[in-house]
Amino acid sequence: MKILLVSDVECPALWDHFRPDRVEGVELIISCGDLKHEYLEFLVTMINKPLLYVPGNHDVRYITNPPEGCESIDDCVFTYKGIRIGGLGGCKKYSDSPYQYTEKEMAKRVHKFRKCVKKAGGLDIFVTHAAMTGYGDAEDRAHQGFDCFKEVLDKWHPQYMCHGHVHQSYNWNIPRSVEYNGIPVINAFERYILEIPDKE
Question: Is the pTM of this model over 0.85?
């Protein structure tokens, strides 16, 4: 299955200069947050495939105006063609805005999330906005990762973890992907094509 990952910055090649051949074969779209709801609505319409998303710290508009035609996987697990995809949006708390959490608050969400994963029978792709501590995050307070995400990977061993929040434009040497105990942790900044084996 070919999956289009998007996050943080609207890609001109997919919006201003959209061409069908650029998304040929894409069966699913996953947003890791901080994208205009108009952009997500455009993608789900033009590509005509399901779009799953978690909110980023700048997605306050989603509360009253969620992207139409798209499915939130925040705090839940969604199964598509046998692939179990679950998410936890938001970032490390640095102000009083929504979608920001302390480590303790996110740990409580992880605990509840584990029940959803258990009900789904496992987890294949773990989708977050913030990175995991030490794996794709940054040193400044707003872009530090969550340590409790390791609990999800250690317990359920998903095939992939995908996140946003840390823009590759911040620093030229920010990696696109790192590994945690053999699990690829992918920074979905702007756009990334993920190909995984079909389950059905």
Answer: yes
Quick one: tokens of 101? 């959490």
Please tell me the distance from the alpha carbon of residue 70 to that of residue 31, in angstroms, as a whole number.
10
Question: Which amino acid would we find at residue 14?
Answer: L
d(CA 87, CA 129): 9
Are 1 and 194 spatial neighbours (Cβ–Cβ below 8 Å)? no
Residue located via tokens 């030229």: 172
The C-alpha atoms of residue 91 and residue 146 are separated, in whole angstroms, by 8
In angstroms, the CA 147 to CA 155 distance is 14
Each of the 200 residues of the chain gets a pLDDT tens digit; together they read: 999 999 999 999 999 999 999 999 999 999 999 999 999 999 999 999 999 999 999 999 999 999 999 999 999 999 999 999 999 999 999 998 899 999 999 999 999 999 999 999 999 999 999 999 999 988 888 899 999 999 999 999 999 999 999 987 666 678 899 999 999 999 999 999 999 988 76
* Arch. (CATH architecture) of 2-195: 4-Layer Sandwich (3.60)
What residues does each domain of the chain span?
2-195
Q: Could you give the maximum distance between any two Cα atoms of the chain, in Å?
A: 44
Which helix (DSSP H) or strand (DSSP E) does residue 125 occupy?
Answer: strand 125-128
Q: Is residue 22 within a helix (H) or strand (E), and if so which, with residue range?
A: none
